[in-house]
Write a structure and sequence with these properties.
With about 300 residues, the protein is mainly α. It has 15 helices and 2 strands. The chain has one domain. The longest helix is centred in the middle third of the chain and has 22 residues. This is DUF2236 domain-containing protein.
Length: about 300
């Protein structure tokens, strides 16, 4: 049993961090720095991004992102998600974790890295009305869409499968608006109500679109090239992510809610992952070490 647990723990750590110890090299930088960061202990962002539900949130965010044809064109034309899905995952995790747990300077540097990548992502796409339009990953509309679906996915997933959020849903949305601003989002939502309004505005304006590119991306997200032994557990989380998406968006994605108890089963899988990985997060540990060092150097 011990060998089985160790093997699974190693598989999970490599999948989500790229390192069998669960601490990629860039985490070491989180321990450095001169302030507590944009959020800090007891914040909504630490609670949400330090929870197990992030694994389901990532699936939900990727699914929702595909529905904007401009965002989908950028992924289709520029992303290496089919050739190196775990590499893309690792890059997204690095940004999320750094902005959440690092000091403000490192969070800003990491966001600048993402922005530099966006600078070269350009092309054209056909919108929902069939009109060909230019796109750039740094366009305000695309940045807003990605930020909104990301925030919504992490908030809703944690609400279903996580613990209470300090400051509630509004607290998380308000805090994470800072992350949006760091990558160039204009007027990010500052409350759960604003988040829903901005998300629904895309749908109501007829911006969203379902086509073969979306179907291709959904097929890939449903069946990524993970280790065969991990796929049954991933499929449960995928079903949970789908169940958490409102029906109007599921219909656009061509997905149906499972007849099985996907929400309960996903909770069971997340509990098993928590058992295998433990409750401690290397990133949060590094952040706490930084804050402890700063407090010792500057006693009240």
């Amino acid at each position: 049993m011990g060998r089985f647990v160790d093997s699974w723990r190693s598989h999970l750590l490599v999948t989500f961090s790229g390192n069998s110890e669960g601490r990629p090299n860039w985490v070491d930088k989180i321990e450095l720095g001169d302030d507590a960061g944009f959020f800090g202990p007891g914040s909504a962002s630490w609670a949400v991004h330090g929870g197990m539900a992030t694994m389901v949130a990532g699936i939900r965010a990727l699914l929702m992102q595909t529905l904007h044809p401009g965002a989908m064109a950028g992924v289709h034309d520029w992303s290496r998600y089919q050739e190196d899905p775990l590499g893309r995952l690792a890059g997204t995790i690095q940004w999320l974790v750094t902005v959440t747990f690092a000091d403000t300077k490192l969070a800003e540097l990491e966001s600048s890295r993402v922005g530099r990548f966006h600078d070269r992502v350009t092309g054209t796409y056909r919108d929902a009305q069939g009109i060909e339009r230019p796109y750039a990953a740094g366009d305000p509309e695309l940045l807003a869409w990605v930020h909104i679906v990301f925030t919504d996915a992490f908030l809703q997933s944690h609400t279903i499968w996580g613990d209470a959020i300090p400051g509630g849903a509004d607290g998380y949305v308000r805090e994470w608006a800072k992350a949006g601003e760091l990558v160039g989002v204009r007027n990010p939502p500052l409350s759960a109500a604003e988040l829903k309004q901005q998300l629904d505005a895309f749908k109501d304006a007829g911006v969203l679109k379902s086509d073969e590119r979306v179907a291709e991306a959904v097929r890939f997200i449903r069946n990524p090239p993970l280790r065969p032994a991990m796929m049954p557990f991933y499929r449960v989380m995928f079903a949970g992510a789908v169940a958490s998406i409102p029906r109007e968006y599921r219909d656009l994605l061509g997905l149906r809610r499972s007849m099985l108890p996907a929400v309960w089963a996903t909770g069971a899988v997340l509990g098993a992952v928590r058992f295998l990985l433990g409750r401690s997060s290397s990133s949060e540990d590094a952040a706490r070490a930084r804050i402890k060092r700063l407090a010792a150097a500057n006693p009240a």
